[in-house]
Design a protein that fits this description.
With 298 residues, this protein is of the alpha/beta class. It has two domains: 216 residues, 3-Layer(aba) Sandwich (Rossmann fold), CATH 3.40.50.300; 75 residues, 2-Layer Sandwich (Alpha-Beta Plaits), CATH 3.30.70. The chain has nine helices and 14 strands. The strands form three sheets. Strands 6-7-8-3-9-10 form a six-stranded mixed sheet, sandwiched between helices.
Length: 298
């Protein structure tokens, strides 16, 4: 089942087609990566999903029905350009934003206090946003995004400007919310960031979908039959053959490519027959960034 489905979505700005016939599904309960370089069309897609703008053509379905003005009440969106009012106090700003999401004053206050306690910052209520550090402001922006318990949480470059400690803190909250049933969309141009977080992705470039699917399956599809071997002693250079090619080597390891029609068992057997003292034998899978570059260059 999908929490969100896009069908042939198009968005045109003057002479620029920001979204060009994009279709994909976000599985319910998933942590989903919306990936692509800057200018790929990710933000335009997000604005359509959150009903900030409308698609010129195509359809978007959210939580079982066609997206509409009420859909935003079930969606939390943290944009890359943070939107806090600098001179407002933390408590009154969060209270205002919560009530815009349809929460009662009591529901809002209870939720805000819960999140401030969770981040060990109950003393922030009467502080102005401009008095907080950038990392603290990021936390307040995160609270503003999640305090109404959205079914779908969209995070656009959520770790920008955060130190490692606060990055891990937000990651922990992402996983905690997901374990409780929240579907999460993680939008970024930093593809290496999502490999440890997302199981499913869509890759966008120049407004078009390039790749869609599960991260593990995508890597399997685009792998180059490369294996890293760590060893003790010396490594024979005569292993190169029509079956195996040494792609790189150091004093401690080599990367070998297995030719089509051959497999890793043949390589391992050949290494053992050569008397090589193997410490580790690992398949080298491509990164999402490497896969994207190959797809764009083709």
């Amino acid at each position: 089942m999908s929490i969100l489905s896009l069908r042939n979505v198009v968005k045109q700005y003057h002479n620029h087609r920001a979204v060009d016939g994009v279709s994909f599904d976000i599985p319910d309960g998933s942590i989903f990566g919306l990936l692509g370089p800057n200018g790929a069309g990710k933000t335009s897609l997000i604005r359509i999903i959150t009903t900030i703008t409308g698609a010129d053509s195509g359809e978007v379905f959210f939580d079982g029905e066609k997206i509409n003005a009420n859909s935003s009440q079930k969606i939390g969106y943290m944009p890359e350009e943070r939107g806090l009012y600098k001179t407002m106090k933390v408590g009154e700003q969060l209270l205002y934003l919560a009530q815009l999401r349809g929460m009662t004053e009591k529901e809002a206050k209870d939720s805000i206090r819960y999140w401030l306690e969770k981040f060990n910052n109950t003393g922030w209520w009467d502080k102005k946003i401009e008095e907080l550090s950038k990392g603290m402001q990021q936390k307040i922006q995160f609270i503003a995004t999640v305090m109404h318990k959205p079914k779908l949480l969209i995070l656009d470059e959520p770790f920008t400007g955060l130190d490692p400690l606060n990055t891990n803190l937000i990651k922990e909250e992402i996983h905690a919310m997901n374990s409780e049933g929240t579907s999460i969309v993680f939008s970024t141009h930093r593809m290496e960031q999502v490999e440890e977080i997302c199981k499913d992705i869509v890759l966008i470039n120049q407004g078009k979908k390039v790749i869609e699917g599960k991260v593990d399956e995508i890597k399997e599809t685009y792998k180059d039959n490369l294996y890293r071997i760590e060893f003790d002693g010396s490594f024979p250079q005569d292993l190169n053959s029509s079956s195996f090619t040494i792609k790189s080597d150091t004093d401690k390891d080599v990367i070998i490519q297995v030719a089509p029609g051959h497999d890793s068992n043949e390589l391992l057997s050949a290494l053992i027959q050569k008397g090589i003292r193997i410490k580790s034998f690992t398949e080298v899978l491509p990164t999402l960034n490497e896969i994207f570059i190959k797809q764009v260059e083709n």
